[in-house]
Automatic annotation (TrEMBL):
This is alpha-L-rhamnosidase. Keywords: Hydrolase. Residues 471-816 form the Alpha-L-rhamnosidase six-hairpin glycosidase domain. Its EC number is 3.2.1.40. The keyword Hydrolase applies. The lineage of its organism: Bacteria, Pseudomonadati, Bacteroidota, Chitinophagia, Chitinophagales. One of its GO terms (biological process) is carbohydrate metabolic process. It is an enzyme of class 3 (hydrolase). Residues 824-891 form the Alpha-L-rhamnosidase C-terminal domain. Residues 367-466 form the Alpha-L-rhamnosidase concanavalin-like domain.
């Protein structure tokens, strides 16, 4: 009975000041004490990660970190201990013999980032591990299923291979893809084999005729001169005792291909090359290596041309059949050239590699008014088309790629600018032939086909997507089909542009890692996919390309030069993404890695500011804000660029203070807190009238000032009111650009105007999120009106139909509409918030998120005045739940009135407005059903005051 009372009391927050400071610890202690046999349920480990990845290859840290999630059918389950063991074989692991590390039973609730403390790890070695856990209900789990990780090169001296390049004289115009090969013999039975490989350029490797791995566009794109990734592959199934062969095909890619504008090419080097090391362990315990060295040979083959922007030409008449298999006659091949390029810039792969994913068959075969043969795949996607063709030797088929058709129904490629996006396939005449590119990709929904006689057979064409293989983590749906399509478009904007780096667009002559686009979308991205490793890798390139004075480049890797740097809202990627990733994944290592970069950026702004005002330098401002075609009435939403810069100066300084606090750098907390006070004082003096009006009376100006707390508390409510008045003056339309859009809905909700946030979300006419949806978009557009109502296009010089920046509205949909959010006291959703804001005429909304602890979800439904919430809280976490209601006494948990549970009442938050209140509860892990009365009247739901 005593335990039951404790359990009941743990549901509810404590009232008063003491409750606010002690409530979370009180809940935790109550859960630890809860041992009621009625609540007993077995616990099991359901997933494990090493360095935030499942069964990773190429781990190259001396002390990798283990994370693990558990599940249980019980409620209020908290881990109280773990034990981890590691071995070099599954047999030893499961027999608990020859372990290289056993943590022993460690009494803690820590389940993320447990540091390995065993024997030194060896290079290119596969290790196996298991974990078991104990909980607060006296349950002990079974050992988890064995998982593994494979190390990369732990020391530079472990590299034995040498860099090799083609030995022939290259065609310097078309630059056909080099082929490099070697045959070798293995005289014993093989236990394991691993390849460690990288390239100058892009590579595809083959052993005995089979592709190594399932990735494409490797080794990916980094700031090559500072950081060149290598990949590690398990190839045990590809090698054999006896004769073997290895072949590597290279492409120009980002390394020496054309990038950006003005004929930029050979940015990192002029010659392609490969570094290849095969590590073999025989069943008798002996080892052998096969290395890239002077014994390899080189030639060219069927890929006659390959450029990222322009496409690929493949000539099957020049295919060297069998060149990756043993026994191929390579007498006329040229010996390779050995070069001394060293290993100093080599780093292991941290992020997920680019892989093939969804495939699409054409939904329509079109003959355009111009007589073009066109296929419609129904989805604007990124990748390439697999083609099956028949014809005579020398027949050429050309495939062109486009995102849209013009208003007459003709194929439209003007918005690709100088990018040709053209694949050419030359047939050998030997029956049915298959083609697809290797070293390029395209952004498209439609293809135009030339060179095929007669009508097109849709069965011969399959569009295949390419993007980094980040696990999907988030799901969202609602009662509104247009909003569901918007979510679809947000997801496909991510898929199309998270291709090793976060690109701005996938189709035109750009495809660069624009920092501003990435930072505004990063939090939305962290819900949809696990982007932890993706951004960890890219942010290290942000730091690598940061200039000595602290400026951050507009694009990373920086291919635009030193002058393209230091813009507000773009360069602030240095502070914004590390903090967003810390909140999303609870890993402070990214703050440790990026702290010097964060600090250098803030210090740069300080160095160019005068009297604490950042009013110098070039800035993009609120990029692509609303600007009507006829601006005679002065309705263009122009925001002062230096006002914006000052807001981001404050924001980056605040995030630096946050990071310093997490990392225990107290002196920096003190000094930058004083700086932040001066920055905000300077903002008030320069940009705010005594009555609180901003010098730029735009939505973006008020949104940034409110979101970053640039105004004193007594001026915030009137500023929020001015923001709402501005929105109404535009007919309830949004006018913000890239920098204002991500925050406008959250600011409206924070200051009690969720009804207005819903009006913006559901607006269907330009400018709005749903206007492109109504126009048939399947991805997020770069501009609010990429296609005008009359079918005309916006300026083709900058009019991508696959840009993710405006998709940042997803963050509000997940964190406010459904209510899944984080707390800074226990990031990574260990302590999470569930607080939905009901409105907009919606009758339901649902979101779920796979965290490192397990699935966190909320599904709410409104039927008349009856509101229900079904929530799931992962093991080893706690949730602060806010139930929206117009009648606090109506709230029930799992069918029981709160007033009837141990006499303990939940906290009722006071609210302004007419849409009710929130009843606040503290819940441990488990599944819960909550009900309440809620009358949706379209008015404000809850004005939370002016503090965050």
């Amino acid at each position: 009975m005593k335990e039951t009372k404790l359990l009941r009391r743990s549901y509810f927050s404590l009232n008063g000041r003491a409750g606010k400071s002690l409530g979370y610890k009180w809940i935790f202690c109550c859960l630890l004490l809860c041992t009621s046999s009625a609540m007993r349920a077995q616990i099991e480990v359901e997933q494990g990660w090493v360095e935030n990845k499942i069964n990773p290859m190429g781990v190259a840290v001396a002390q990798p970190r283990f994370s693990f999630a558990s599940n249980s059918t019980g409620k209020n389950v908290v881990q109280t201990a773990y034990e981890i063991r590691v071995a070099t074989s599954v047999t030893d692991l499961q027999k608990d013999k020859k372990l290289i590390w056993n943590s022993g039973k460690v009494n803690t609730d820590q389940s993320l980032h447990v540091v390995y403390q065993g024997a030194p790890l060896k290079s290119a070695q596969k290790y196996f591990w298991q974990v078991k856990v104990w909980d607060n209900q006296k349950n002990e789990s079974k050992w988890s299923e064995p998982a593994d990780f494979t190390t990369g090169m732990m020391e530079k001296q472990d590299w034995k291979a040498t860099w090799i390049e083609p030995g022939y004289k290259e065609d310097s115009i078309l630059r056909p893809s080099p082929l490099l090969r070697k045959e070798f013999k293995l005289n014993k039975n093989i236990q394991s084999a691993r390849v460690i490989i990288t390239a100058h350029g892009l590579y595809e490797a083959f052993i005995n005729g089979k592709k190594v791995g399932n990735a494409f566009l490797t080794p990916g794109w980094t700031s090559y001169n500072k950081r060149l990734q290598y990949q590690t592959y398990d190839v045990t199934d590809l090698v054999k005792a006896g004769d073997n062969a290895v072949g590597v095909m290279l492409g120009s890619g980002w390394y020496r291909g054309t990038l950006a504008w003005g004929g930029n090419h050979n940015l990192y080097g002029k010659t392609l090359g490969v570094l290849f090391q095969l590590e073999i362990t025989y069943t008798d315990g002996t080892t052998a290596t096969v290395l890239s060295d002077g014994s390899w040979k080189s030639a060219t083959g069927e890929i006659r041309y390959a450029e990222i922007y322009n496409g690929e030409t493949i000539d099957h008449r020049q295919t060297k059949t069998g060149w990756t298999a043993p026994g191929f006659k390579d007498n006329d091949w040229t010996p390779v050239k050995v070069v001394d390029d060293g290993y100093d810039n080599l780093v292991t792969t941290q992020n997920e590699l680019v892989q093939q994913h969804e495939s699409f068959k054409p939904i329509k075969v079109i003959t355009t008014p111009s007589g073009e043969k066109v296929l419609d795949f129904g989805q604007n996607l990124v990748g390439w088309v697999d083609v099956k063709l028949k014809g005579k030797a020398g027949d050429t088929v050309k495939i062109f790629h486009a995102e849209v058709l013009d208003k007459a129904g003709n194929f439209y490629t003007t918005n690709l600018r100088m990018a040709k996006a053209e694949d050419q396939y030359i047939l050998s005449g030997k029956g049915e032939e298959s083609f697809h590119p290797h070293f390029t990709w395209h952004g498209f929904r439609y293809i135009r086909v030339e060179g095929v006689d007669g009508p097109l057979n849709p069965d011969d064409f399959t569009a295949v997507t390419l993007y980094s293989a980040m696990p999907q983590t988030g799901q969202f749906s609602s009662s509104d089909s247009l909003i569901n399509q918007l979510q679809h478009n947000i997801e496909w904007g991510l898929r199309g542009n998270f291709l090793d780096v976060p690109t701005d667009c996938p189709q035109r002559d750009e495809r660069l890692g624009w920092t501003g686009d990435a930072e505004v979308f990063s939090r939305t991205a962290s819900f949809i996919r696990n982007v932890n490793s993706f951004f960890d890798k890219w942010m290290q390139d942000v730091a690598a390309d940061q200039l000595p004075d602290g400026r951050v480049a507009h694009v990373v890797p920086n291919v635009l030069g030193e002058g393209s740097s230091g813009a507000a809202g773009w360069a602030d990627v240095a502070t914004i993404i590390p903090w967003n990733m810390y909140l999303a994944y609870g890993d402070k290592q990214i703050l440790e890695k990026q702290y010097a970069s964060m600090k250098a950026w803030v210090d740069y702004i300080k160095s160019v500011s005068k009297d604490n005002l950042w009013n110098t330098g070039y800035h993009f401002g609120d990029w692509l804000f609303y600007h009507p075609d006829d601006d005679n009435d002065g309705r263009a939403a122009v925001t002062d660029k230096y006002l914006i810069a000052q807001c981001f100066y404050a924001h980056s300084t605040q995030l630096l203070i946050n990071a310093a606090s997490v990392l225990g750098r107290s002196s920096d907390v003190t000094s930058y807190s004083a700086l932040l006070k001066d920055i905000k004082a300077a903002f008030l003096k320069e940009y705010v009238t005594p009555s609180g009006r901003l010098v730029s009376s735009t939505q973006t100006a008020y949104v940034l000032a409110l979101n970053f707390d640039m105004l004193p508390e007594n001026l915030r409510a009137q500023a929020a009111k001015r923001l709402v008045e501005n929105i109404h003056s535009y007919g309830d339309h949004i006018t913000t650009g890239f920098l204002g859009t991500p925050f406008i809905s959250a600011v409206l909700t924070r200051f009690g105007y969720s009804d207005v946030a819903y009006q913006l979300l559901l607006q269907k006419t330009y400018p709005s999120w749903l206007y492109p949806v109504k126009m048939g978009a399947t991805t997020i557009w770069e501009r609010w009106d990429g296609i005008k109502q009359n079918g005309d296009f916006e300026n083709a010089g900058m009019n991508s139909f696959n840009h993710y920046a405006y998709g940042a509205i997803g963050d509000w949909m997940y964190r406010k509409m459904v209510g899944l959010d984080t707390y800074e006291d226990a990031p990574g959703y260990k302590h999470n918030k569930i607080q939905p804001y009901i409105g907009g005429g919606f009758t339901s909304a649902r979101a779920s998120l796979k965290t490192y602890f397990g699935t966190l979800s909320n599904s709410w439904q409104l039927s008349g005045s009856n509101l229900s919430m079904d929530i799931e809280i992962p093991v080893n976490t706690t949730s602060t739940v806010f139930v929206p209601t117009t009648n606090p006494a109506s709230v029930a948990l799992d069918g029981k009135s709160l007033n009837g549970q141990g006499g303990q009442k939940a906290e009722v938050l006071p609210a302004q407005g007419t849409s009710g209140q929130f009843v606040k509860l503290e819940l441990g892990s488990g599944r819960y059903h909550l009900t309440s009365t809620f009358v949706q009247d379209g008015a404000n739901q809850a004005k939370q005051g002016v503090k965050k």
